Automatic annotation (TrEMBL):
CDD domains: RWD_ScYIH1-like (cd23822). This is Piso0_005259 protein. InterPro entries: Impact, Impact_N, Impact_N_sf, Ribosomal_Su5_D2-typ_SF, RWD_dom, UBQ-conjugating_enzyme/RWD. SMART domains: RWD (SM00591). Belongs to the IMPACT family. It is found in: Cytoplasm. It comes from Pichia sorbitophila (strain ATCC MYA-4447 / BCRC 22081 / CBS 7064 / NBRC 10061 / NRRL Y-12695). Residues 8-106 form the RWD domain.
Length: 293
């Protein structure tokens, strides 16, 4: 990979995580986890990257009360780099994803060490979460049944993923074929007239369109969920999916689930794309095209 190739990867990552990468020297960059200005990870990229992994030069905590153990953090970041690195493949996107999950768990553990909660309260919370999850699942399937009996269904023509329910939050992916930006925008507006979709806390989306003359269009929208639209666009790019719009709807159940939400967003988006047969057979061989009728 040339220096230009590395910069292309950095540009793509900056589009997904704006302001999280800063060049501080030749082939040396500071990374800051999305939404966290108190931790700086200094990486050095060899000229032979991605055949050779990047090196972690330092991990600096700007908030000792939040990140008190720099030595532990540096070891953990090194472990993450080793985990995500595959010779010949760029790894920055996976590195950011793993960092988010690690730091979420790290912060949760730090908070648990500072807080004391009675076992009774924890049991009550678990019961409430289970009840919320069961209610969410019931509401979804009841609403899905109402979708099916409507004469004019705003979701007609959309391939729909299986729902994922986690701690009260529900994630569903939708995909359909489009051949122009106008198609994508029109189908999206119709979709949003559906009562269930309009009540979603987030409707994250992305589309990729390639015209017959070779002109390409791609765009994404986070809808309030930081970097979610960019993640869906990255997924579509990795799957080499074209002429498709993907929407991931999330109904928040009241309990924050941390980076797990991004796994669910990717999972339902991928499920909808594969079920809709929007990727070449040699890319994915899962299932036949299914559209909602």
């Amino acid at each position: 990979m040339t220096v230009e190739d590395l910069r292309e990867e950095l540009t793509a990552i900056d589009a997904i995580y704006p302001g999280c990468i800063e060049e501080v020297g030749p082939q040396i960059f500071n990374l800051s986890p999305p939404g966290d200005e108190y931790l700086i990870i200094e990486l050095s990229f060899p000229l032979d990257y991605p055949d050779i992994k990047p090196d972690v030069l330092a991990v600096v905590s700007k908030n000792p009360s939040k990140y008190p153990d720099e030595r532990y953090l540096e070891k953990s970041v090194n472990d993450i780099v080793l985990k995500v690195f595959r010779k010949g493949e760029v790894c920055l996107f996976d590195l950011f994803t793993e960092l988010e999950e690690f730091l979420y768990k790290y912060e949760s553990n730090q908070n648990e060490n500072l807080e004391t909660a009675s076992g009774t309260d924890e049991e009550v919370n678990e019961i409430e979460e289970l009840e919320t999850q069961e209610t969410q699942e019931t509401d979804y399937f009841m609403d899905k049944r109402s979708f099916d009996i409507q004469v004019k269904d705003p979701l007609e023509g959309w391939t729909q993923s299986d729902p994922i329910v986690d701690r009260g939050s529900t994630f569903i992916g939708f995909a359909r074929q489009v051949y122009s930006v106008e198609d994508a925008e029109n189908y999206l507006e119709i979709m949003k007239t559906d009562k269930k979709i309009s009540k979603a806390n987030h409707n994250m989306l992305s589309w990729r369109i390639k015209r017959d003359d070779g002109v390409q269009y791609q765009d994404c929208d986070d809808d309030g969920e930081t970097a979610a639209g960019g993640r869906i666009l990255h997924l579509l790019t990795m799957m080499d999916a074209w002429n498709v719009i993907v929407v991931v709807s999330r109904w928040f159940g009241g309990t924050h689930i941390g980076p797990d939400r991004f796994k669910h967003i990717n999972s339902v988006a991928r499920d909808a794309v594969i079920k809709g047969n929007f990727v070449a057979a040699d890319k994915n061989s899962t299932g036949k095209k299914k559209t909602k009728k």
